[in-house]
Amino acid sequence: MKKVSILLILFFLFPLIAIAQSEANIDSLIIIGKHQLHQAVHKWTDTALLGARAYFERLLTDHSKTWLVHYYIGLADYRLASYFFATNNTDQAKQYIDDGIEHLKKCLDAKEKFADAHSLLSSLYGNKIGTNPFLGMTLGPKSGKEMGKAMSIQSNNPRNHLLAGWGAYYTPKMFGGGKDKAENYFQQAIASYETFQVSDPILPDWGHEEAYAWLGIINTENEQYNQARQNFKQALQIFPEYGWVKHVLLPNLDKKISSNN
Cα dist. 26→23, 32, 239, 246 in Å? Predict the structure, then answer.
């Protein structure tokens, strides 16, 4: 009887062990993917960004945390859209905007109370308006609604403020944006990064150094050069290999200072 009892216990225990091992495996794979995407953003090449995106697409074959994998594919799409905008390839940018929107919708279908997905979806709607201003009448309210949901779920989430800051920076003041508003959002993002605790290492934690970089950009535009340099240095303290700050923003700041002397 004792042997039978042990066998019954093992019979029910083995599936639970297998599930726990599977979840631990997908968690570690997601963390690797997060690192790969973070590195790709700072390499800022289409090859690196596409490689990070493809990595997460392969993780969709594991069905335990597809909602989060969809989020990271959406984030990779967001970065790719930004890259193709910067390289004047609007058609490619549109493709990744649309794809990112679909992945984030899938994420939110499974995890509706996920602030990071709502704020990123809001930003992608804003990017889509950038490809065609006539879409503003339909997508503008959608973008605002998604950001409102993000803020109501996690008002202290720093990426909500960072993404809102990017949106405000590229939106004319007459339409509710402006660089003053963007500066306030970036300051709120920085303050939130200092206190916001990520509850699980598989969850999003990106953007801290970017908030400092963008605040430094606004400082530079406002001719607040000492503050700009301080914020760029803060960005490099967080991520020393931040190429955009090291090789573009700081040299541009030095040129501006020398041209004004």
Answer: 5, 10, 26, 34
Query: For residue 62, what is the DSSP state?
Result: S
Q: CA 67, CA 152: separation in Å to the nearest integer?
A: 20
* Burial class, 74, CB count within 10 angstroms (exposed 0-12 / middle 13-18 / buried 19+): buried
User: What is the C-alpha separation between 24 and 77, in angstroms, rounded?
Assistant: 26
Distance between the two ends of the chain, CA-based, in angstroms?
A: 92
**CA contacts within 13 A on the Cβ side of 215:** 25
The secondary structure of residue 246, as a DSSP letter, is I
Distance between CA 224 and CA 216 in Å, rounded? 9
Contact between residue 249 and residue 221 where contact means Cβ atoms under 8 Å apart: no
197 to each of 72, 101, 180, 248, how far by Cα in Å?
Answer: 19, 27, 28, 31
For residue 200, the SS3 value is coil
Q: What is the DSSP letter of 37?
A: H
Q: Which two three-digit tokens encode residue 98?
A: 């649309």
Tens digits of residue pLDDT in 206-247: 999 999 999 999 999 999 999 999 999 999 999 999 999 999
Q: Is residue 108 within 8 Å of residue 114, measured between CB atoms? A: yes
DSSP-derived secondary structure letter, 248 = I
CA gap 65, 257 in Å, rounded: 49
The overall longest dimension of the chain from CA atoms, in Å, is 92
- Count CB-CB contacts under 10 A for residue 79: 21
pLDDT tens figures, 194-217: 999 999 999 999 999 999 999 999
* Predicted model pTM: 0.90
Distances from the Cα of 219 to the Cαs of 15, 213, 224, in angstroms?
A: 57, 10, 5
